[in-house]
Amino acid sequence: MQLHRLEVEGFGPFRERQTVDFDAFADDGIFLIAGRTGAGKSSILDAVCFGLYGGVPRYEGGEKRLRSDHCEPDDVTEVVVEFSTPAGRYRVMRSPEYERPKKRGGGMTVQPAAVQLHTMVGGEWIGLAAKEREAAYELDEILQLSREQFLQVILLAQNRFSEFLLAGSKERQSLLRRLFGTERFEDVQARFDERRKAAEQALGARLATVSARLDEGERLVSNADLGHDSSADVGHDSDPDLGHDSGGQGDDRGAIESEPVAVTSEERLDGLRRAKARADYRAKRRAAERLEAEKQSDAADAALAIAREEQRAQIERNRARAALARLEADEPHIAAARSELQNARAAELLRGPIATAATAAEAHETALEAEERARAAWEAHDIVADDLAEWAADRTAQIGAWQRAAELERSASALDAEFAAASDAVAAATTRIEATEADRVALPAQLDELTLARDAARQLAGRVGDLAAARDAAAVRHAAALEAVRLRAAHGDAERELADASAALAAAQAALAQLRQRRLDGFAGELATSLHEGEACPVCGSHEHPAPAVHADPVSADDVDEAEAARDAIAQRERDAAELTSTLRADLAAAITRADGREVEEARADLDAATAAHAQSTDASDQQAALEQRREILLERIRRLDSDRERDSAALAAAREAHALVAQRVADTREAIAEARGSYESVAERLTAMRVEVQDALALVEAVAERTRRAEAVTVAKAEEDAALEASEFDGVAAVELALRTAAAQAALESRVTQHSVQREKERAILLDLELRTLPEETIDLGPAELLSLTARQRWSAAVAEAGRAAGVSEQLSAVIEAAASEHARIADDAADYEVLRGLADTIAGRGANARKMTLETFVLAAELEEIVDAANRRLSDMSTGRYQLRHSDALAARGAASGLGIVVFDAFTGQTRPAQSLSGGETFLSSLALALGLAEVVTARAGGIRLDTLFIDEGFGSLDGDTLDVAMRTLDELRQGGRTVGVISHVEAMQEQIPAQLRVRATSSGPSVIEAR
């Protein structure tokens, strides 16, 4: 990462926008940020950190005073940082939250914090994010450094430089945790503790489960009276529950009370297993009893079923006897129905021939009547034709030819209207052409006039720029002429003031000379006033003063000073007047030059003329646009008239052609109608009369043919009827009609006969089987058999309930024993797993056998610390000329304090290690610098090997002597290798001499600071 540019405004001590170009120091590689204490050197680094991460470390935990106290309410607070990474070049613009005046109304409002992130694409800035969360996400991906890592590897800020070296293990762990993100190992420790607690709870729960299962089993044993533990019981023929005296049960209860209480879970399980054996024996006995009761019940049910079957057969036998008697009595009626059915079936064979003959006769009579009606209708036309069919065909062909004429006759009125419309179209097209011809002749002359007016306006409007320049120059000359008038008056006043000041100065000089002379003349009298009797004279040393001088015109030194001050004031007045006169003289000459020697009236006249000319040119521009628009409208009108004339000419030609065609159609139509109409009033009337004649002729032809066909059908049907009667047993048609029956009547007769026959045979078969069983004639009684079945079923139900209870107790006891044994068997495995998990959790948390009391996170950080120390020693060895080395210490701290991240210093002069706090100020600085640079290398490697092209160090180099400062400078010089730029904040003069490239932060007299590059 490399910083390129920083802009700050209204931030920290900077009110006005300050710009820092870091690329300007790329060639030097190292530059100094210098300035007086409190000027704002560290605020530059604060601005970089705020721009990239939105916060300043030294303001955390307190009031965030990011906005400059020098800002006015309307001033803006903003930080802009430009930087680049291998991914591209970026710019961050960020503002903190601050108060500003409301845009509407009075009072203040809060300006929310804002941020914008841009990237350089194709030489232009393209926005990436404009919201705090989005910008933070993008910057995290771009920078690949957290703020803590940034402050530790790029901005080595004040109060953080030696913090890492002198911190205790706990504070150092906190810092390393933020840099390397090892909170996950603390989460691992917490999860292992949770697993240990969960395993401990699970083991306790399993023990409680085993105890609960055993308690449940013992309750089952007690409730089922299985408590006695006699091995002879198992396999004995008698069951204590089935004994006939209560003494046996009393002995069982005594055995339960005398049984020793189980001490361990295993002994309690053994007791339950013995009770389970007794329960199994009891369940087997109850199951055998249930089977025996079931056999007895089945036998009683079988006997009852036999008795019920014999009773049913007896009832069925009696019913069959009665039914067969009824069927035998109905036999005469069935015989008559059978004979009627036979006659109906024989007559049904003759139904078709008889019906066909009757139908044919009726059709023949109908055909004769239709022939008579058709002949009467044809003869009414009084037309003689040898062959009616041929005559009708000829007339039908004529009707087809006249049909077209009839259609023309119906459309004659429409055709006349079409002819009139065609005539109107010709007249209208002729009128349009004549109306537009006058406009076409007059419009070109109007177009020429508009073109000339437009060209004149365009020529005048083209001078608008020159006329505007002339107007502006005239305005400048007019203003200069006015300024010259004012300056002439001011210059005259200044010359008079200069003359007055020169006269006053001459008078003041003369007065001062007189005062000085009087002062010299009165020195003797002034000295005499200070003489006292008996005191030595300051001039001659005599103690006697016989004739002291008289101080008649006293002038004191104060009088002379006052005169000199007055003289100086008047002299300053004269100098000011002379300077003002010179300035006004030069301004007057410049104004006259700008006015080009013109007076005010002349310049005003020029300005008015130029203004009018410019206004006329501007108006001409507007007129040009209007004239151009009118000309375009006229051109469009001419084009439209030409287009309309062509269209109207084409329309006229088309209308004339259409008129000729319609006239021809009218003539043809009238000729065809006259030919087809003949002697009738109209073609339609002739067609109607002709269609009626043809229809009557065809009707007569069809009627004659139909009468002939019907006569032949009557002859054939009569012959078939006679043949069928001759072959049958009936005497005539009347006998056949008497024997005929409908299909429903035949079906009813057949069903009656068939049903009687089937039912009689069925009843005979049923009665034969029942008669063979030799059933008694008296009614069978089911009472005794039902009572025996009910008693046997009750005994079986009781046995089933007892067997179910015994089996249920055995199954419940078996399940309890199995569950308790399974849980008891898993307890040993869980206890072993718990011990392993507890040991691992204690080791990770620094408890138990962990002699160093180091947590997992501390162990990981210790490995990182060893790499940091190794990296630091590579520089510290050169800085200290091989005397000092930093070493990681995992020594156990006193009184259980956090340990494992200690740093001690090995002194090669003594061969001993000592605490870092024992180093002197300069030694501490060098060690801290080496450690900070080593930390930066390791953090950079952990952040993905990113390249750091910019580095800032803000720490007191003033604690170093000359030699140590040279060592530090060599180290800093090494840091700039590979194109890296190093910025150092210091006010040490020696560093200012050694580092020529500098940024000076200077506080102005009004308060705010400014940044100056050298």
Summarize the topology:
Blueprint: E1 2-9, E2 18-21, E3 30-35, H1 41-53, E4 78-85, E5 88-95, E6 98-101, E7 108-111, E8 114-121, E9 124-129, H2 132-143, H3 147-153, E10 155-156, H4 163-166, H5 169-180, H6 183-223, H7 247-258, H8 265-329, H9 331-348, H10 351-379, H11 388-410, H12 412-461, H13 464-521, H14 523-528, H15 557-594, H16 600-677, H17 683-727, H18 733-739, H19 743-772, H20 783-844, H21 856-879, E11 884-889, E12 902-907, E13 912-915, H22 921-942, E14 950-954, H23 962-975, E15 981-985, H24 989-994, E16 998-1003, E17 1009-1013
Helix pairs in contact: 5-21, 6-8, 6-20, 8-19, 8-20, 9-19, 10-17, 11-16, 11-17, 12-16, 13-15, 13-16, 16-17, 21-22
Describe this structure in words.
By secondary structure, this protein is α+β, with helices and mostly antiparallel strands. It is built from 24 helices and 17 strands. A 6-stranded antiparallel β-sheet has the order 2-1-4-5-8-9, covered by helices on one side. Strands 10-14-15-3-16-17 form a 6-stranded mixed β-sheet, with helices on both faces. Helix 23 links the parallel strand 14 and strand 15. Helix 5 (169-180) packs across helix 21, helix 11 packs antiparallel against helix 17 and helix 13 (464-521) packs antiparallel against helix 16 (600-677). The longest helix is centred in the middle third of the chain and has 78 residues, at 600-677. It is flat, with a radius of gyration of 69 Å. The two termini are 25 Å apart. The model is unreliable at 230-262 (pLDDT under 50).
- Average pLDDT level: 78
Number of helices: 24
Strand content: 5-15%
- Per DSSP E runs of 2 or more residues, the count of β-strands stands at 17
Q: Provide the spatial order of strands within the biggest beta sheet.
A: 2-1-4-5-8-9
Helix percentage range: 55-70%
Structural class: alpha+beta
Regions with pLDDT < 50 over 5+ consecutive residues? 230-262
- Measured distance between first and last alpha carbons: 25 Å
**Over the alpha carbons, how many angstroms does the gyration radius reach?**
69 Å
What kind of sheet is the major sheet?
6 strands, antiparallel
Overall shape: flat
